[in-house]
Amino acid sequence: MIRMTVLGILCWVHAAAAGTHSLQFFGMATSEGTGLSQYVYVGMLDDVQYTSFNSTMDKPVLLTDWMNKTKGREFWEERSWYILHSQKILKWSLINTVQHFNHTGVHTYQHVGGCELYDDGTRRSYLNHAYDGKDFISFDVETLTWIAAVPQALLEWYIQYGMETLQRKVPAVTLIERKARESAGTDVICHVTGFYPREVEVNWIRDGEALLEEGVWSGEVLPNEDRTYQLRKTLTVSPEDQNKHSYSCQVDHASLDEKMDVKWVPEAALNMGFVAAGVLAALGLIIAVIIGALIWKKRASAKEQSDASCTSSNSTNNDRCDSIAEKLMTQTE
């Protein structure tokens, strides 16, 4: 969760300025009744605070202007969502831990995480949780496993998450189209959500076979409220390529028997299809009206001929006239 976006933004910063860099975050949930914010969050880049948030605010505050660049904006959008979601997770963790220990009174639950990028390109990531200021549980980024600092933490996390490893959930895939921000092309977002476990592979494929890397930006895997996960992968397509190639989003997950491919149909093509269908429907209606008018005219002409013939005849021929009129009307149908 931390590794993808945090390291990605650090690599972007590292490319602009040599030296060791670090990105850190601190979050804390506090019991109710203290008069303090029940959740506070601080984000730091190279020991400079770039964001802050607490439970009395609607959204996190951005304190720097370096996010104005494209990758900065994308990072900030996802980071804002993560900060708001972390508030829910930490509050839940505090309530659950207090109940587990059968504690009363005021307590705190904290998480501290981040990563460092060194001059030689090596990286170090970490995520630690603490209860009442003492180490509780930590996440090993290399092995993707939780390590309990106390036996109670191990028991609690096994109870909460142990059974869920058997409850795989199939991802839902949605393609969202928008105009590219810095080009004449189109951004196509492959939004994959509702899957469990966390590990997932999402790729953009061209013409059914070519795996794309250029022009593709990947977000981080983020948690949903129902303990499933979501991921967004964005492809930028130029107008020329859009007309020459086909594109699909391919998802590979443990819950799937085979890879899932969702083909992108540009909105412009859909609109042209709707226009063509509308034109055909309109032409069909016009033809039906013309045919109806011709039939009506033919019937009216036949009736006039019948009436004229019968008017010039005597009454003894009425039956014959009726028969002739009936035949003429039948022939026009």
Instruction: Give the tally of β-strands.
Output: 17
Helix coverage percent of residues?
25-40%
Structural class, please?
alpha+beta
Q: What is the CATH level 1 assignment of the largest domain?
A: Alpha Beta
Instruction: Give me the side-by-side strand order of the main sheet.
Output: 4-3-2-1-5-6-7-8
Outline of the structure:
The protein has 333 residues and is of the alpha+beta class.
Report on the architecture of this protein.
By secondary structure, the chain is an alpha+beta fold. The protein has three domains: 2-161, Murine Class I Major Histocompatibility Complex, H2-DB, Chain A, domain 1 (2-Layer Sandwich); 172-265, Immunoglobulin-like; 279-332. The chain has helices spanning 2-16, 70-101, 151-161, 239-244, 267-311, 318-332; strands at residues 21-30, 39-45, 48-54, 61-62, 108-117, 123-131, 134-140, 145-148, 172-179, 186-195, 200-206, 210-211, 216-218, 222-223, 229-237, 247-253, 260-263. The strands form three sheets. The chain has an eight-stranded antiparallel sheet. Strands 9, 10, 13, 14 and 15 form a five-stranded antiparallel sheet that branches. Helix 5 packs antiparallel against helix 6. The termini are far apart. The relative contact order is 0.09. Mean pLDDT is 78; it is low at 1-17, 270-276 and 313-317.
